[in-house]
């Protein structure tokens, strides 16, 4: 049976690594708060009530698609499309194509950024493979105006960062919610991780500062992974409310 992503694909290595997925989540949580279309998720009322849970569900969907058969992945993508159509019907308006593209671009960008921070530099071929995987997701969703290759994506992504991000009342509220749900220590750690991996524009708008202070901690954590003692250390800092969701990411 054909898989959506090949078994030896770099995309599977990225999305099968819980630590990398958590870094993807941290980066997406930062950029997501700045998106000009984030009001769509406030419309349902679900995002402000449980912002981390909503973001985890997005990450979990992406991971599910990566590790599914072609038929299962297409069914999951169609379900995502249907969910968005119901939201559009409820608001009697259409989510703009650029907003769909922005979320897709985040999955591409943070897949690359998170893996390179935690593991190694990716080759151009590997980056193109990441792009192609998520391009197929966007194509299945019938998102208009998608770039057709990695080089075109790089240019469009840079433009998107400049045009579609803004610090708003939603940004402020989401970060208040992050802090409330994570607690001060974990919230501070999240911001330092974000400072390390987000694009300059995102850091500038959120005033995250430099990511350098966390680099020594990251070096020690990488050592703990080599010694295979990283999981108990990581699990100690996971928020209790989301521990089950996070650990379920390891099922792949």
What does this structure look like?
Residues 44-182 form the ER-bound oxygenase mpaB/mpaB'/Rubber oxygenase catalytic domain. Pfam families: MPAB_Lcp_cat. This protein starts with 9 loop residues before the first helix and ends with a helix. The chain has 252 residues and is mostly helical. It has helices at residues 10-15, 18-34, 39-43, 46-49, 51-66, 70-91, 97-118, 124-140, 150-163, 169-182, 184-197, 200-206, 215-226, 230-237, 243-248. It has 15 helices and no strands. The radius of gyration is 17 Å and the shape is globular. The longest helix is centred in the N-terminal third of the chain and has 22 residues, at 70-91. Helix 2 packs across helix 5, helix 2 (18-34) packs antiparallel against helix 7 (97-118) and helix 5 (51-66) packs antiparallel against helix 6 (70-91). 73% of the residues lie in helices and 0% in strands.
What's the quick description here?
With 252 residues, this protein is mainly alpha-helical. It has 15 helices and no strands.
Tell me the structural class: mainly alpha
Low-confidence stretches: none
The total count of strands amounts to 0
Please state the CA-atom Rg, rounded to the nearest Å: 17 Å
Percent of residues in beta strands? under 5%
Broad shape: globular
Mean pLDDT over the residues: 88
Q: How is the biggest beta sheet arranged?
A: none
Q: Assign a percent range to the helix content.
A: over 70%
Number of helices: 15
Give the helices and strands as they follow along the chain. HHHHHHHHHHHHHHH
Could you give the distance between the termini?
Answer: 18 Å
């Amino acid at each position: 049976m054909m898989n959506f992503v090949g078994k030896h694909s770099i995309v599977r290595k990225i999305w099968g690594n819980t630590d990398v997925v958590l870094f993807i989540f941290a980066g997406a949580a930062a950029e997501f708060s700045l998106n000009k279309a984030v009001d769509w998720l406030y419309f349902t009322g679900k995002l402000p009530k449980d912002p981390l849970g909503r973001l985890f569900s997005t990450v979990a969907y992406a991971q599910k698609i990566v590790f599914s058969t072609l038929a299962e992945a297409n069914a999951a993508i169609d379900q995502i499309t249907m969910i968005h159509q119901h939201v559009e019907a409820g608001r009697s308006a259409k989510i703009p194509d650029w907003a769909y593209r922005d979320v897709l671009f985040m999955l591409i960008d943070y897949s690359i950024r998170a893996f390179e921070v935690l593991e190694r530099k990716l080759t151009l071929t590997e980056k193109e493979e990441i792009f192609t995987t998520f391009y197929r997701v966007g194509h299945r969703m019938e998102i208009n105006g998608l770039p057709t290759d990695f080089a075109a994506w790089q240019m469009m992504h840079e433009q998107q960062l400049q045009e579609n991000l803004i610090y708003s009342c939603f940004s402020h509220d989401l970060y208040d919610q992050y802090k409330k749900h994570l607690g001060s220590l974990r919230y501070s750690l999240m911001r330092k991780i974000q400072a390390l991996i987000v694009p300059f524009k995102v850091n500038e708008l959120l005033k995250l500062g430099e990511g350098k202070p966390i680099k020594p901690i990251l070096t020690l954590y990488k050592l703990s992974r080599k010694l295979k003692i990283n999981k108990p250390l990581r699990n100690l800092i996971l928020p209790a409310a989301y521990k089950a969701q996070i650990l379920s990411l390891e099922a792949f």
